Amino acid sequence: MKLDSKDVALTAVFAALYVVINVLQMFSIGNPTIYGPFQLRVADCLLALAALFGWPVVGGVTLGCFVSNGIYFLGVQDVVLGSVANLVASTVIFLLRKNRLLACFAGALPIGIIVGSYLPVIYDFVPPEVLGLWGAYAGMVISITLSSLVSVVVIGYSLLTVMSRPTIIEPLKSHGLKVVT
User: Fold this and answer.
1) Which tens digits make up the pLDDT trace of 12-65?
2) Is residue 181, in this structure, part of any structural domain at all?
């Protein structure tokens, strides 16, 4: 893999977009929609674009998550593991890009599993005496997975489909933007 200045610039653009979308969502709707036990992180729709633009999106959404989670600091585990979740999810989408819908679906799962497994530690959301310790973890994994499916599959796949149209992608390619096939 060879990186050039356009790849670095595109990585920076996606990192900035990820942060800006999260900040806008945080201030317009509220923190719990991004960082709470029930979250719908709209910026995760950008992960789907790894199927179109490749490694710069993978790097951008990973860095963007690191910065976003650092802004609203829940703990080191959120900053590190949330970024790892985006890295794994966007890499899965990139690697499975031949079937974009499947790629988006498969890419949403690591976010639910990784983020859902550490959020119960941060939030004492469901008392273990109600569902038991495993029930609290399972509930969080299911909750985050469902919200991730909405962000990545519903919103992200729609964005990917629109961005892939020749009327949009051809002008970008004519200005030197690399598109993976």
Assistant:
1) 999 999 999 999 998 887 666 777 667 889 999 999 999 999 999 999 999 999
2) no
Token output for 129 = 């005496």
User: What's at 165, amino acid-wise?
Assistant: R
Other beta carbons within 10 Å of 164: 14
What is the residue whose two structure tokens read 């650092």? 70
Nearest of 54, 46, 51 to residue 22 by alpha carbon: 46
Output the six-digit token pair for 71: 């802004």
How far is the C-alpha of 45 from the C-alpha of 49, rounded, in Å?
8
**Which pTM was predicted?**
0.90
What sign has the CA pseudo-torsion 32, 141, 162, 57?
positive
Give the CA diameter of the chain.
60
Domain assignment of residue 25, yes or no? yes
How many domains does the chain divide into? 1
**What token pair was written down for 62?**
């990973």
Residue 22 lies in a domain: yes
DSSP secondary structure code for residue 45 in this structure: G
